[in-house]
Design a protein that fits this description.
Elements lengths: L36 H12 L12 H8 L1 H7 L12 H16 L7 E2 H7 L5 H16 L4 E2 L4 E3 L6 E8 L5 E4 L6 E3 L12 E8 L7 E10 L4 E9 L6 E5 L8 E3 L11 E9 L8 E10 L5 H10 L7 H9 L6 H4 L3 E2 L6 E4 L8 E7 L8 E8 L10 H9 L3 E2 L4 E2 L4 H7 L8 E10 L5 E11 L3 E4 H9 L5 H9 L4 H21 L8 E6 L5 E7 L3 H23 L6 E3 L5 H14 L11 H11 L5 H11 L4 E3 L23 H16 L4 H40 L7 E10 L2 E5 L5 E5 L8 E4 L4 E4 L5 E3 L3 E10 L4 E6 L42 H4 L56
Parallel strand pairs: 6-8, 14-21, 15-22, 29-34
Antiparallel strand pairs: 1-3, 2-3, 4-5, 4-7, 5-6, 7-8, 9-10, 9-12, 10-11, 12-13, 16-17, 17-20, 18-19, 20-21, 23-24, 25-26, 27-28, 27-33, 28-29, 30-31, 31-32, 33-34
C-alpha cells in the first residue's frame, strides 16, 4: 500500500482544500522578515497608505505607521485601552476585538501581519500585547478575521470572502449559511473536501443577481463537524475485508471507505458509527473505521438508536455520576426536612401525561375568604433537585453536559439517572418529597398581588393525568365512567374546578397584554412491540393542559422578576422580537391575504395576536399561523433580562422542570441562596457572572440538538406508518410551496411532496411573493393553505420522504411508484417564500403537549425555519445535479490506491 501523505486534521488547519494555495487578497508565500520594529511600522504604513508618501519624501518609520490612517485609529479608539490593571482580562480582550474589527473595516486598511497590525494600532506593554494577541486569535477562530497564507489578517467581507456553516444537499452541492448575510451556493466541485455542517471560508466567485444566489468556492475549513458519522454498512468484501458506509444523513454526500481490518466486527446491513480517519479531498472520499455497531438496520429500535448516535447524545452515565446517584437516599429524612416549611397536609396534586415518570411539578389552589383583594392562592411546588445534586459534583457536571432530557418517540434519555429522575426527585403520590414552592395570590382579574418563595416538604395526594382531569371537568356527567372518575376524586374535584377558573383568568390577562397563542397541531406516535408505528394520534389542547401551562408560566415569571429586582446573576429565558426584514415580508404576505398589519412604530406581540384572532376558524387559519410562526426568532437562554416577546413578558425564566432541564436547576440554586441569605456574597456573584454565560449558550445549543433528534424520531415513525398506505387517497392542506413542488400535510399530520413534474396539466411557475405555483396556460394556482386531494405514490423510509400525486392526475402517473426518488426534499424550501409553515418550524416534537403546555410551547413562537434553500440554485444543472452519492468502488480501493475510495424553537 502506498505511503499516505500526512494530513493535518486540526480544526483550525488553514487552507485545507485550496485550489491554488492562496486565499483572496494575498501575495506569494514567505517574504523577508523585517529587521526591526521601526521597519515593521514602515512596512505597515507602506502597505496601508502607499500612495500617501510621494517619491523622495520619507517619514520616520515608526511615525509612519501611526500617521498612516488616523481615521482608522480614531474609529478603533485613539489608543490602546489604558489602565489595563483596572480592566478584567476578558473585558480587555473583548475591547481589543472591537478595536481590531473597526480598524480592519476602514477603507484604507490592507491586510497586515500580526506584528504590523500591533505596530499600527499602538499596542504597547506586555499586558496589552497579550490581550491583543488573544483577541486576534479569537477573531480568527470565530472566522470574523481571516489570515492569508502570507500570515496577513483582514476581515472576510473586505477580501471577497465569506465565513459560515455549510448546509449540504443529497445531490452533492451545498449552501454557505452566514450569520448576517445571504446564503452562498457552493457547487459540488467547489467544496474541496468540505462536508455538511463544516465551518468554512469561501471565496466568492459569482455575485447574486436576477434571483440567483451568489456562488462560491471553499478555500479553508475552519472547523470539522463530522468527526463521527452514523450510517449503514452497504457493501463488504470478505469477512474482514473492506466496505463502504452510507451516512443516514443524506446531506453528507460522501460514502465513507472502511479499509481492511477497520470494520470492527460489523456486517453488511448493520447500522454503525464511523470515526473519520482521513478527510475527503477533491477527488477522494473520506476514510474511517467502525467504532460502534448499533445492530442490523432492520432490528427493532436500531433506527432510533441511529438518530441518538447521529445527534451525539450521551446515553450512558459516567461511573462517578452513577456511584454518586447510588448514594442518594430513597426516602426523605428528618435531616432533609430541617429549615423547610411543612406543607404535607396541603391538598397538592400532580397533573401529567399518563406515561410520564419524572414528575417535577405539583399544584395546589385555595379559594380565599371574601373581603380581601386576593381571591385565589396558587401553589406551584417544584422538585428540589438541587438538594440531591450539589454544584460541581459528578452528577452536576454530567447534567450540565447533557443540559436537557431528550424525549424520543420510543425512549427517554434523561438528564439525571433514573434513580433520581424517576425516584427521590419525582413528586410521586403519598410519599414525602422535597420541593421549592412558589405561593402566589391572585385577584379576580388574574393579577398577581402577592407571592412567596421558600423550600418545602410536600406529599402529593393524587397522581392525575391530563386525560382524567379533562374528563372530570368537561366530560358528560351522565357517562358512567366520568361519574366514577369524579366520585373517585371527589376530594380534589372542587379544587380542579377552581383551577380551571383561575387558568381562564390568567389566559385572558395574558391575551390582554398581547401574548401570542399559536395553536399548531402535534402528533403522538403509538408503537407496537417491535417499535413500529401502529397509530398516529393528534394531540389536542384541553382545559387540563391549559391549567398546567398557565400555572407554570405564572411561576416562571414570578421567579424571574424576583431575581431580577435583587440584581443577582441569573439565567433568563428570552425571546427577542422578530427581525424587521422578516416582519416586512410577513406584512406584505398578510396584505395579499387581506389581513394587513396596522401601521407600527414599534413591534409589539399584540400585532401578531390580532392577526391570529382575525383568521381563527377561517380556511386560511392554518396558513397564517404557520407563516407568523416562521417569523418568530428562536427562544434561548441568556444572562440578561431581554424579555419574552411571544409571551409579552418583561421577565421570564425556566424554573419548573429541574429534573429535565439544567437551566432550571441553576435557577433553583440561585433562588435558594437568595431565600437563605437575602442576597449573594460578592465572591459568589462574581463566580456566577463568570460561568452563567457559557452555561446559557451551551444549554441553548443542546436544546436545539435535542429538539432536532426528537423531531427526527417522530418524522421517521410517521414515514414508516405510511409504508403500507401507498395507493390510498387523502384530503390534505398545502403546507409548503417551492419551485419543485407542493408539500401537503395530511389529516394524520404526515407531510409529503407533490413534485412539480407530476403536475402534468400545465407548466407551473413559482410565485415567491404569493407563496404559490401558477399554471402558465390555465392560471390554476396552488398556494399555502389550499386543500387538495392526493394519492400516496411512494414511501422511502431511508430518505424519510413521501411522494404524493394529485388524485385527479394519478391515472396519468400509474408508473410513478417505479421511479427513483427525486431530489428536493425537506430542508430546501425556496428562499423566504418557500415557507414550510407548520410542516417544519411549527413542530415541537418530542414530548408534545404533555410537556410543551408547561412552558408555553404554544404560547410563543418556534424558531425561524433554518432551512430556506432554493432548488433552483445556480449551477444545480451542472456537476451538482448529476446527483446521487459519489461512490467510486473500483477494484483498486482494496489496494488503497490514491484515486480509489468513495467519491433542520421554541419559544418556550
Amino acid at each position: 500500500m502506498p505511503k499516505r501523505r500526512k494530513k493535518d486534521l486540526d480544526q483550525g488547519t488553514p487552507d485545507a482544500g485550496t485550489r491554488d494555495g492562496r486565499t483572496g487578497g494575498e501575495g506569494a508565500r514567505g517574504g523577508r522578515r523585517p529587521a526591526s520594529r521601526a521597519a515593521v511600522a514602515a512596512e505597515a504604513a507602506g502597505a496601508r497608505h502607499a500612495a500617501a508618501v510621494k517619491p523622495g519624501e520619507m517619514e520616520e518609520p515608526a511615525e509612519a505607521a501611526r500617521a498612516a490612517a488616523p481615521d482608522a485609529r480614531e474609529a478603533a479608539g485613539a489608543t490602546a485601552p489604558q489602565a489595563a490593571g483596572a480592566v478584567k482580562p476578558g473585558d480587555a480582550v473583548q475591547a481589543w476585538e472591537d478595536r481590531i474589527l473597526a480598524f480592519m473595516r476602514e477603507k484604507a486598511y490592507r491586510p497586515l501581519t500580526a506584528t504590523q497590525l500591533a505596530a499600527a494600532m499602538d499596542v504597547e506593554g506586555p499586558e496589552a500585547e497579550a490581550a491583543f494577541r488573544a483577541a486576534l486569535e479569537r477573531l480568527e477562530a470565530a472566522g470574523r478575521v481571516v489570515r492569508t497564507r502570507t500570515r496577513r489578517y483582514g476581515v472576510p467581507e473586505r477580501m471577497n470572502l465569506a465565513v459560515g456553516v455549510l448546509h449540504g444537499h443529497p445531490k452533492g452541492y451545498a449552501f454557505l449559511i452566514q450569520p448576517d448575510g445571504e446564503d452562498v451556493f457552493i457547487p459540488a466541485e467547489n467544496l474541496n473536501g468540505a462536508m455538511h455542517r463544516d465551518r468554512v471560508v469561501v471565496r466568492l466567485v459569482g455575485r447574486a443577481r436576477g434571483g440567483r444566489k451568489a456562488e462560491g468556492e471553499v478555500i479553508r475549513i475552519l472547523e470539522r463537524a463530522n468527526r463521527e458519522l452514523v450510517g449503514r454498512l452497504e457493501w463488504q468484501q470478505g469477512q474482514a475485508g473492506y466496505g463502504f458506509v452510507t451516512p443516514v444523513d443524506q446531506r453528507v454526500s460522501w460514502d465513507v471507505f472502511i479499509p481492511q481490518g477497520q470494520l470492527g466486527g460489523a456486517r453488511a446491513g448493520d447500522m454503525v458509527v464511523v470515526e473519520i480517519t482521513r478527510w475527503p479531498e477533491k477527488r477522494r472520499g473520506p476514510e474511517g473505521r467502525v467504532v460502534r455497531v448499533l445492530g442490523p438496520a432492520d432490528a427493532p429500535g436500531v433506527d432510533v438508536a441511529a438518530i441518538v448516535a447521529k445527534a451525539g447524545l450521551r446515553v450512558e452515565f459516567p461511573a462517578a455520576a452513577m456511584a454518586q446517584a447510588e448514594q442518594v437516599p430513597e426516602r426523605v429524612t428528618a435531616r432533609d426536612r430541617r429549615g423547610r416549611r411543612d406543607l404535607r397536609d396541603w391538598l397538592i396534586v400532580t397533573i401529567d401525561g399518563a406515561d410520564a415518570k419524572d414528575l417535577d411539578d405539583a399544584v395546589s389552589l385555595q379559594r380565599l375568604p371574601e373581603g380581601g383583594e386576593a381571591v385565589w392562592r396558587l401553589g406551584v411546588h417544584i422538585a428540589d433537585v438541587s438538594h440531591y445534586v450539589p454544584e460541581g459534583s459528578p452528577l452536576d457536571l454530567e447534567a450540565r453536559r447533557r443540559a436537557t432530557s431528550v424525549y424520543l418517540v420510543d425512549r427517554v434519555i434523561p438528564m439525571l439517572p433514573p434513580r433520581l429522575s424517576n425516584g427521590i426527585c419525582s413528586l410521586n403520590p403519598r410519599v414525602d418529597r422535597l420541593a421549592v414552592s412558589v405561593i402566589m395570590d391572585f385577584d379576580a382579574q388574574g393579577r398577581r398581588v402577592a407571592y412567596e418563595i421558600f423550600p418545602s416538604v410536600i406529599r402529593t395526594r393524587h397522581r392525575l393525568t391530563y386525560e382524567g382531569v379533562e374528563r372530570m371537568l368537561e366530560g358528560d356527567p351522565d357517562d358512567p365512567e366520568v361519574r366514577a372518575l369524579r366520585e373517585q376524586h371527589a376530594d380534589v374535584l372542587p379544587m380542579l374546578e377552581e383551577m380551571a377558573r383561575l387558568a381562564a383568568r390568567l389566559t385572558a390577562r395574558r391575551e390582554r397584554r398581547g401574548s401570542i397563542d399559536f395553536d399548531i397541531a402535534e402528533v403522538k406516535v403509538v408503537l407496537d412491540q417491535q417499535g413500529m408505528p401502529r397509530e398516529l394520534l393528534r394531540r389536542e389542547r384541553t382545559v387540563a393542559t391549559r391549567i398546567i401551562e398557565e400555572f407554570m408560566i405564572a411561576a416562571n415569571e414570578t421567579v424571574a422578576e424576583h431575581c431580577h429586582w435583587r440584581q443577582v446573576p441569573f439565567v433568563y429565558r428570552v425571546h427577542e422580537e422578530p427581525d424587521p426584514d422578516e416582519v416586512e415580508e410577513l406584512a406584505a404576505f398578510l396584505t395579499i391575504l387581506g389581513y394587513p398589519l396596522p401601521p407600527r412604530r414599534k413591534l409589539h406581540p399584540r400585532l401578531f395576536q390580532q392577526v391570529l384572532k382575525q383568521v381563527e376558524g377561517r380556511p386560511e387559519e392554518y396558513l397564517v399561523n404557520a407563516v407568523v410562526l416562521r417569523t418568530m426568532k428562536r427562544a434561548r437562554y441568556a444572562t440578561e433580562a431581554l424579555g419574552h416577546f411571544g409571551l409579552a413578558a418583561r421577565f421570564y425564566c425556566h424554573f419548573t422542570s429541574p429534573i429535565r432541564r439544567y437551566p432550571d436547576l441553576v435557577v433553583h440554586r440561585i433562588v435558594k441562596e437568595l431565600v437563605a441569605r437575602g442576597t449573594l456574597p460578592a465572591q459568589r456573584a462574581e463566580q456566577l457572572e463568570a460561568i452563567l454565560p457559557e452555561i446559557a449558550d451551551h444549554c441553548s445549543q443542546q436544546e436545539r440538538v435535542a429538539e432536532e433528534a426528537e423531531r427526527e424520531s417522530v418524522e421517521l415513525k410517521k414515514v414508516q406508518f405510511m409504508m403500507d398506505k401507498v395507493g390510498e387517497t387523502y384530503r390534505g392542506i398545502i403546507s409548503g410551496v417551492t419551485p419543485f413542488g407542493l408539500f401537503v400535510t395530511l389529516p394524520n399530520l404526515v407531510e409529503g411532496l407533490v413534485h412539480v413534474s407530476t403536475l402534468t396539466d400545465d407548466y407551473y411557475h413559482y410565485e415567491e411573493k404569493l407563496y404559490s405555483l401558477v399554471g402558465e396556460r390555465t392560471r390554476r394556482t396552488f398556494r399555502l393553505g389550499d386543500e387538495v386531494e392526493v394519492v400516496v405514490a411512494k414511501v422511502n423510509p431511508e430518505a424519510r420522504t413521501i411522494d404524493l400525486v394529485l388524485a385527479e392526475l394519478a391515472g396519468e402517473l400509474e408508473d410513478y411508484a417505479g421511479r427513483p426518488s427525486r431530489g428536493g426534499r425537506r430542508g430546501e424550501g425556496a428562499g423566504r417564500g418557500g415557507a414550510r409553515g407548520a410542516g417544519e418550524a411549527g413542530r415541537t416534537g418530542g414530548r408534545g403537549a404533555e410537556r410543551e403546555a408547561r412552558e408555553a410551547g404554544r404560547a410563543a413562537g418556534r424558531g425561524k425555519n433554518a432551512a430556506r434553500r432554493t432548488a433552483a440554485a445556480p449551477g444545480a444543472g451542472g456537476a451538482a445535479a448529476r446527483g446521487g452519492r459519489r461512490r467510486r468502488r473500483a477494484a483498486g480501493a482494496a489496494a488503497g490506491r490514491d484515486d480509489a475510495g468513495p467519491a433542520r424553537s421554541q419559544a418556550r
